[in-house]
Design brief:
The protein is mainly α. α4 runs antiparallel to α5. The radius of gyration is 17 Å and the shape is globular. The relative contact order is 0.16.
C-alpha cells in the first residue's frame, strides 16, 4: 500500500490542480505522477526523464532505451518501473526472461545495470564497450537518462507507489524477475 495518498484534483489547491491538469495534458496521470504532484518542483524534476527519453531514442531506438531502463529497474528491484518496462517488452512479442541482445545492446544494458548497482564500479572495460558505439555527448545523455531512471526507481520503491491498474496484466514476479 502506498505511503502517500494520490493527489486528487478536486481536493487540491489551485496551484496543484493547475499542475495536475498540465501533467494530464502532456503525459497522462499515473500513480507515480499523482504522488509527485504533492510537490510540483519534484514532479517537474522527474518529468525531465521524458525529455531525455526523446534525446536518447534517435541513437538508441525505443527498444534499447526501454531495455536500458528495464536493466536499471531490475537492478534496483523497482517493481513498478520493472513492470512498466516488462509490459513494453511483452507487447513487442519478446520474452523479457530471455532477451536476445547483440554486443551494442548488451553494453547498454550492462551499463544501466552497473549505474544502478554502483556507478563507481563502471569499469574501463565496460566504458570502452560503450564508447565503441556512442559519442561522448551520447554517453552523457545516456548516463543522465539512466540517473533519472534511478530517481524514478527510488521514488516508487521508497514510497511504495502502487502499481497502476493498467499494468495488472503484466505484473512481474519479483522473486523471478529480479534474480
Amino acid at each position: 500500500m502506498a505511503r502517500i495518498a494520490l493527489v486528487r484534483p478536486e481536493e487540491a489547491s489551485p496551484e496543484i490542480r493547475a499542475a495536475y491538469e498540465e501533467t494530464a495534458r502532456e503525459h497522462s496521470i499515473s500513480n507515480m505522477k499523482a504522488t509527485l504532484l504533492h510537490s510540483p518542483v519534484a514532479l517537474h524534476a522527474v518529468l525531465e526523464w521524458y525529455k531525455l527519453f526523446a534525446q536518447v531514442k534517435p541513437f538508441l531506438g525505443e527498444r534499447l532505451a526501454v531495455l536500458f531502463c528495464d536493466g536499471i529497474s531490475r537492478q534496483n528491484s523497482c517493481e513498478l518501473c520493472a513492470t512498466f518496462m516488462h509490459r513494453e517488452i511483452v507487447k513487442w512479442g519478446e520474452d523479457p526472461y530471455n532477451l536476445k541482445l547483440d554486443e551494442r545492446e548488451q553494453a547498454v544494458v550492462d551499463f544501466g545495470r552497473q549505474l544502478a548497482k554502483n556507478a563507481n564500479g563502471v569499469s574501463d572495460n565496460l566504458y570502452t564497450r560503450l564508447a565503441r558505439h556512442f559519442t561522448p555527448a551520447q554517453i552523457v545523455d545516456l548516463t543522465v537518462f539512466g540517473a533519472l531512471m534511478i530517481v524514478n526507481n527510488i521514488f516508487n520503491s521508497a514510497l511504495q507507489v502502487d502499481l497502476d491498474t493498467s499494468l495488472d496484466d503484466y505484473r512481474i514476479q519479483p522473486e523471478k524477475y529480479f534474480s
